[in-house]
């Protein structure tokens, strides 16, 4: 491990937490504007985390205490590790070479799993129902997600994100495979809210049904860690979508000849802008314009419709490449 | 593997149910296998208080039985009281009462549509419907002076007249709500998520609805043609010939579920708009109070012996007030209130049994429950099941207060 990697591995998580909270604030603001409200200031998530960290952390009497307390840490650790695999604009991913898309898939799963285990460990009926729902939902959306990743591996003959980010996918494929990639994009966009536990698939946290489900018993520092993990995960998911489907850099589009610090700053800001657009389109607008599905309906949507779309996309990519 | 079931307690504190009632659901996975509904968390003794006051004070007290139906209870009160006293409101007052009651029905139904959307996580729809509801609250404020608890009705008439400017504002609001209801119909009835969440949920058959004595929109959604305005018309409804709105008239089939009740409520808003239009077009001239002097009214009450029942079709169903004046004091000797939620809550048990956990909020919200209308009486039993007398409970309550005061060190 070089000192550079070490610096990255400390700097990236901090940056990721900051960006995650900023995007969360933006999300709340835009959502409020869409429903004719004013909404909180963008810095509100920072205040929320600060307040949660100051509050008392309560462990329920019949909870498995060590598991209950460990799961928020696992969840946050998984989401912070996730950041180290994402190429940030033209910057290479710090852990490039140590893992790829499959690891990312596992890290996403690990977070959901940590929340589910935390829910089961809390010993509350609401949390148990929420955790059961989360497991069912996870089983439903993992297959389309894996299909998308396999589709990309077919195009690039590689699972590495940096390889994928270096050349836009649209320039690698013909018209037929292009349609296939488009279908994969649709499948990934449907999976996104489920992966991030947002409406219409926030079934595991349904506030009006089971009082935030898995998080019902969490408070104080533990809840703050889950909150941070959720924020980082939202940013990471949008960033991965950008890397996979719109990796066009400014230099690539306009043929600019930037170099040095200017290149990194301009491309970094351009990347953040793209992530913001994807975040608002795929998460904010979707979560504002849908009601919540029931768990069996959500399962059906993923197992039948989204799977058909993803597998069709995969087949087209396979034929086209 | 042994079957594992556990209880999900909904209420008295739960985000799906911001009202003091408890639903204990025993669930197996997602399926509810046993339901128990417990009432009696909010006994306020309003009837008892009413029997200690004079009739006009009791009228305002009745308005505070429920916050949303703040016209329904006074309406039933004045109708019952007028029957007991043998007086009748002037025609103009009758028409004004009808206008206010129908305006309230519109705002209550829009409120319900927002609540049901919220219960399925559809918060944008909640914000949008409640934004539309603001206009009618402003209108009610313009006419009566208050957004809620209007203090508009009086035994033998109304307290405020409808001016030309009010009628103009009502006409504007009616135009607005025709368009708004059209939009709401489009959204609620064609949205696939809404349909997926409400079709088949909280289903009541016609026979079961009859057996459970449900009233109001819940009964009408199950296909029963029950409506106080149609069955025993009063005030301006007698001139209008109101027909109960049932799903078989609208779409030709009855499921008796959450979707049908949405249908019924949406079309009832349109019916209310029609009634208001008729009333302000045909508003009779004349005075608005049968006995304008309140002292004279109280004197008449003090000399009257008689009883009467007032019935009004509240947005949630039938409200009944029973009255008895015994000629000794200027208030009711007996006052008995029956609110619609009491009957409608009966439907929770059958509707929840066999449903999923995700259906609980919708089943709970679909009758538009109102707990404060509900708890009319409290029976206290000791551990052996013997009912304790009032004096003993009172003595025990005082003893407990003294003990707590002593423990906390509060001086007398």
TrEMBL record, chain A:
Its main location: membrane. It comes from the Archaea. The keyword Repeat does not apply. The chain crosses the membrane at residues 6-23, 63-86, 98-123, 135-156, 168-191, 235-256, 268-290, 302-320. It is found in: Membrane. One of its GO terms (cellular component) is plasma membrane. This is NADH dehydrogenase subunit 1.
From TrEMBL, chain B:
Gene3D superfamilies: Cytochrome-c3 Hydrogenase, chain B (1.10.645.10). Mg(2+) binds at residues 47, 337. The keyword Manganese does not apply. Fe cation binds at residues 69, 373. Residues 120-376 form the NADH-quinone oxidoreductase subunit D domain. It holds the Pfam family NiFeSe_Hases. PROSITE patterns: NI_HGENASE_L_1 (PS00507). Keywords: Iron, Magnesium, Metal-binding, Nickel, Oxidoreductase. Ni(2+) binds at residues 66, 69, 370. Its cofactor is Ni(2+); Fe cation. The keyword Cell inner membrane does not apply. SUPFAM superfamilies: HydB/Nqo4-like. One of its GO terms (molecular function) is ferredoxin hydrogenase activity. This is NADH dehydrogenase. It comes from Palaeococcus pacificus DY20341.
